[in-house]
Amino acid sequence: MDIAQIKSTICAHCRRREVVINEKEGTAVCKNCGLVKEFSMIDTTAEWCAGAEPSTMDRTGSNINPNLESFGIEGNITGPAGVENSIQKATKRFVSRTDSNIKASMVMIKGFIRALNLTRSCSEMALDLYAAGEKKSIFPSKPIEARLAACVFMASKIVGRSKDLKELLSVVRLKRRDVTRCYKAITKNMPTSTVSIDYAEKVSNICRTLEISDIIEKACRQCVEIVMERELLTGKNPNTIAGVAIYLVTKDSPFSLPIDNIANASGIKGQTIQRNLNYILHLQKELIPAWFRPYLK
């Protein structure tokens, strides 16, 4: 179980989600009741340099990157000048051209992300899209900047931080038709699994923010899965879909919450939830899990 999963789990003793990770000691302890959930945990990230001071600790290498054929595992070679140079030259010959292109793309994507004030998760998603697209050769013969811009544009939609195409173009300074063609190539050829979103997990995150009970969270997770299976809100902001599912489940139950509270926790407006709710409200009883329906008024 990774750190993110441990943090999100419920304490077996007090049933609270307050598990704290101490990476130095390798323990996971419930802050509320003190139950030790995990111990002797292994740090799977890159290791520290031997003898590094806590204030100036340096990594021996970056985290593994699954988009690179070498997985980003590298090292510096030192030794007598002649030997060092010859070994480094030989090493460079074995670095694949694909890895070189991906590394250059990472730098450009990070530049776009900073300029658009987007998150690290958006940067990682854009790189995943670009790497998958290049492996499948789905992009038209357009500049690499246009391909990367299209991946950033798609990634911003997936992570719920959608940017306007006009805003993107003002940053990347490319022709609209180039970016649009690359974007269409992604939407047409990329397998759904590549750009899939865990809507149930989004619902859980919002429920935790709202401090909703586990039984309501379970009903909301199942509701959003039914909504997506029936493709009722396809193309909508993922946070909007999650917010609508939560409001749909709770609004006619004894556990109802103000729509603005759900909207704030989802990072959207209450009007957005209400507008999208109108599309599926007539299917409310079909979308809410059967076991939860007796709770409805």
UniProtKB/TrEMBL annotation:
Source superkingdom: Eukaryota
Transcription factor TFIIB cyclin-like domain ranges (all copies): 105-188, 197-279
A cellular-component GO term for this protein: transcription preinitiation complex
This protein's record includes keyword Ribosomal protein: no
Record keywords, A-Z: Transcription, Transcription regulation
GO function term, MF aspect, one: TBP-class protein binding
A single BP term in Gene Ontology: transcription preinitiation complex assembly
CDD domains, alphabetized: CYCLIN_SF (cd00043)
Protein name (record): Transcription factor TFIIB cyclin-like domain-containing protein
Source organism: Euplotes crassus
